[in-house]
């Protein structure tokens, strides 16, 4: 627990003053509690005011205070709120609605290490779904009230307050920047991400497209272990803006309290919440973002040089020292090499036998991407193109160009586009290699300058791959012939893409491959902007044409006796759609990321358990029993946990991390049964919320259809499911399609002789899954809900 006297010393850094705090704390009066709440709706605000009046009537009026009664005349409003939070024994926050000020102040209190008491009036249900989607606030633990009497009782019954999290993590020196990424890739977010990739520091991200929710423990760990926190706030008219901006307000409040360098970038000019109005930077021109990021990075560098990392006592318990790493591979590129599991799929990609890697989100495609890259990254005899476009830049291309073309011309356009872009990327890599020694050799310097001049004629962007991709999309749109589909010729489209003779690029590549045996192209994230299980034929065509373009480059290299291998990492549903639309199904070899081998899962966990804790030696089962209670009820705790996942590394790591966090917060020396079941409930909520997002892509109007299964017991029939659909106003024509969607996402499975089968166990072949019913004697009740969702649905 934070020493309250220490909080009354002005902090050495405050984002408001951009340096040492300039406020005096000498006249602060210690209070029992400080109430923060929105002024709207007025009826809720009046309930809180009346509760405070009742509490004051039983003690001194100075013991309980509201934000409305602060003496703010002539003062900076948030500075007075900061003093009130620091001086109170507990912060009572009414989080009934998504009020950005309240969420910022709640995060601020937790960042200071203050006890908090969140309260909600659940009869106001407007924001219930938003709270579930954000994820942080429904895991703090809140009390429900309906009137002022309830609220007074809640405060008086909770007299011994402790901070929700007391163990402060060490500073992450390797990745000192934490970036809260917006769910929609705008020009501004692409510029921001590109600027971060160019800076001298590595960084970590929270991306809602990868993890739909973030727990309080995870948010606290990420913020407190950072030196800088950056959030890109969305325009409120965009879908998902309220959830994202709420999460950002909470996290940035926590970061400001923890004396981090905070950069809050807002697209568009808006009136910001009063608490952080003075620290938000609004922009209209995305090209200015690089300057804002540069300033933040410079401050981070100065702090890195001057900060004295305080000595943190090593926790006594083993489980407190276990660090499972980050569930997102992008956040642990260096650490990944320590505990990367070399699966059979890794060997196939490394040997060049797989042009496509397929797997659902969370199965480890990106981890495999980096694992393979690390094998070739420093080899001088191999050019490695590691391409990860951050966001989907083809929306404009589809609207402005592809929509006007026949399927044949669409395919020609996209293949030529990819071919041109990949050739430019190869030249860019050649320039990088020559540049390292160019200024030590005059002849090499002349060659470098010549190639660089030619290269700049073709590409105007000096940014990262995403920026160059966007630049070429815009260039194609500007140069595209204004003719009808009938009048257009393929040669005219090629000319609009290449803009000049491409032979210069071929010559540069062939004449500058000294001591090079070949090329390796690794391409990830192409489908990041595609909806889950609802992609269009144009989406599939984009991937197909990328494969065609890489095949052309492969033939070009091989015709000059040079090796060329390409691997593209895509989602399972994208691959299935691609196969359905492709006549030559055997042209491209592929591997499927399948984690059905329990021994591989154990190896993955064993390496991560042993990464930070030297005492954890021995075989997996012995170590597991030291860390976890061996059983939950009469079932093996390891099997209990894995059965509540889809056997995806991300799910397994996420659930195990939650189990450990619960155990640590309860002061346990190992994870007990009750810790596992408590963590399971939070994890189940995460999984259900993620499923809502994915269903929304296919059925936007009935994303909450999963809620109709609430409380359903045991097995049920197809007719039972259709009745639930009918009660939820689903169109009869959509019944079968929606059932297939629920089967594909493994929400619903089939039970045969008490053995449960789900799509992920059958290569996502729902027809094969349904065919199992023919072997069941009683076909009426064969469907079941996956265990991952049962806790959230009270099943």
* Spatial arrangement of strands, main beta sheet: 2-1-3-4-5
- How many β-strand stretches? 20
Given helix and strand content, the structural type is alpha/beta
Gyration radius from CA atoms, angstroms: 28 Å
Distance between the termini: 37 Å
Q: Count of helical segments? A: 31
Approximate shape:
globular
Low-confidence stretches: 309-314
Beta-strand content: 5-15%
Query: Mean pLDDT score, rounded?
Result: 85
The tally of domains stands at 4
Q: Strand count, sense and closure of the main sheet?
A: 5 strands, parallel
The percentage helix is: 40-55%
Provide keyphrases for this structure:
Rossmann fold; 4 domains; five-stranded parallel sheet; alpha/beta; 20 strands; 795 residues; 31 helices
What do these coordinates show?
The chain is α/β, with parallel strands linked by helices and 795 residues long. It folds into four domains: 4-157, Rossmann fold (3-Layer(aba) Sandwich); 177-313, Rossmann fold, CATH 3.40.50.450; 344-592, no CATH class; 699-790, no CATH class. 46% of the residues lie in helices and 11% in strands. The protein is built from 31 helices and 20 strands. The strands form five sheets. The chain has a five-stranded parallel sheet, with helices on both faces. It has a five-stranded parallel sheet with strand order 7-6-8-9-10, sandwiched between helices. It has a five-stranded parallel sheet with strand order 12-13-14-11-15, with helices on both faces. α5 (128-134) links the parallel β4 and β5 (143-144). The model is unreliable at 309-314 (pLDDT under 50).
């Amino acid at each position: 627990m934070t020493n309250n006297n220490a909080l009354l010393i002005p902090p050495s850094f405050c984002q408001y003053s951009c340096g040492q705090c300039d406020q005096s704390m000498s006249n602060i009066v210690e209070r029992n509690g400080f109430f923060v709440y929105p002024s709207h709706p007025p009826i809720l605000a009046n309930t809180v005011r009346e509760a405070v009046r009742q509490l004051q009537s039983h003690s001194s009026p100075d013991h309980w205070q509201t934000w409305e009664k602060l003496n703010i005349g002539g003062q900076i409003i948030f500075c007075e709120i900061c003093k009130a939070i620091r001086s109170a024994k507990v912060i009572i926050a009414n989080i009934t609605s998504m009020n950005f000020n309240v969420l910022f102040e709640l995060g601020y209190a937790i960042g200071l290490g203050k006890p908090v008491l969140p309260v909600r009036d659940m009869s106001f249900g407007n924001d219930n779904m938003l709270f579930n989607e954000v994820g942080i606030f429904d895991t703090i633990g809140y009390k429900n009230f309906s009137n002022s009497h309830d609220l007074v009782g809640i405060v008086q019954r909770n007299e011994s307050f402790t901070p929700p999290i007391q163990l402060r993590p060490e500073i992450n020196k390797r990745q000192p920047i934490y970036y809260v990424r917006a769910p929609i890739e705008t020009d501004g977010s692409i510029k921001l991400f590109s600027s971060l990739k160019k800076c001298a520091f590595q960084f970590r991200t929270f991306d809602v497209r990868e993890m739909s929710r973030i727990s309080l423990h995870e948010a606290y760990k990420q913020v407190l272990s950072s030196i800088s926190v950056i959030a890109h706030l969305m325009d409120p008219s965009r879908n998902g803006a309220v959830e994202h901006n709420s999460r950002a307000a909470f996290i940035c409040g926590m970061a400001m309290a923890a004396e981090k360098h905070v950069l809050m970038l807002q697209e568009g000019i808006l009136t910001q919440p009063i608490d952080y109005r003075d620290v938000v930077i609004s922009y209209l021109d995305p090209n200015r973002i690089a300057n804002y990021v540069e300033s933040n990075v410079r401050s981070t560098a100065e702090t890195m040089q001057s900060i004295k990392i305080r000595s943190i006592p090593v926790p006594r318990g083993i489980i407190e020292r276990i660090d499972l790493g980050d569930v997102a591979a992008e956040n642990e590129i260096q650490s990944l090499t320590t505990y990367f599991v070399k699966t059979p799929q890794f060997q196939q990609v490394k040997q060049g036998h797989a042009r496509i890697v397929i797997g659902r989100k969370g199965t480890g495609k990106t981890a495999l991407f980096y694992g393979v890259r690390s094998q070739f990254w420093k080899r001088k005899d191999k050019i490695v193109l590691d391409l990860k476009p951050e966001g989907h830049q083809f929306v404009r291309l589809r609207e402005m160009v592809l929509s006007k073309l026949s399927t044949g011309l669409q395919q020609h356009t996209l293949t030529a586009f990819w071919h041109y872009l990949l050739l430019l990327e190869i030249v860019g890599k050649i320039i990088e290699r020559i540049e390292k020694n160019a200024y030590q050799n005059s002849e090499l310097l002349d060659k470098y300058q010549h190639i660089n001049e030619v290269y700049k004629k073709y590409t105007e962007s000096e940014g990262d791959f995403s920026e160059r991709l966007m630049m070429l999309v815009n260039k194609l749109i500007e140069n595209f012939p204004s003719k009808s589909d009938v009048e257009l010729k393929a040669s005219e489209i090629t000319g609009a893409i290449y803009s000049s003779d491409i032979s210069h690029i071929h010559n540069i590549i062939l004449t500058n491959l000294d001591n090079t045996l070949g090329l390796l192209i690794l391409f990830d994230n192409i489908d990041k902007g595609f909806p889950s299980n609802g992609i269009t034929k144009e989406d599939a065509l984009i991937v197909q044409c990328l494969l065609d373009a890489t095949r052309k480059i492969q033939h070009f290299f091989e015709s000059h006796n040079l090796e060329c291998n390409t691997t593209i990492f895509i989602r399972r549903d994208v691959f299935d759609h691609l196969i359905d639309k492709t006549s030559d199904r055997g042209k491209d070899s592929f591997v499927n990321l399948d984690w059905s081998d329990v021994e591989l899962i154990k190896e993955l966990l064993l390496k991560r358990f042993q990464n930070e804790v030297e005492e954890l030696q021995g075989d997996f089962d012995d170590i597991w029993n030291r860390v976890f209670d061996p059983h939950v009820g009469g079932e093996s705790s390891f099997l209990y946990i894995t059965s509540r996942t889809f056997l995806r590394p991300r799910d397994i790591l996420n659930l195990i991390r939650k189990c450990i966090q619960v155990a640590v917060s309860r002061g346990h020396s190992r994870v007990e049964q009750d810790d596992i079941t408590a963590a399971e409930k939070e994890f189940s909520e995460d999984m259900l919320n993620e499923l809502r997002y994915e269903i929304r892509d296919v059925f936007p109007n009935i994303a909450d259809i999963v809620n109709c299964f609430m409380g359903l017991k045991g097995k049920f029939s197809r007719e039972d499911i259709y009745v639930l659909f009918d009660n939820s106003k689903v169109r009869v024509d959509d019944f079968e399609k929606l059932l297939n969607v629920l089967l594909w996402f493994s929400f619903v499975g089939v039970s045969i002789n008490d053995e449960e089968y789900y799509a992920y166990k059958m290569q996502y072949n729902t027809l094969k899954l349904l065919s199992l019913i023919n072997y069941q004697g009683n076909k009426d009740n064969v469907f079941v809900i996956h265990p991952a969702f049962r806790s959230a649905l009270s099943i």
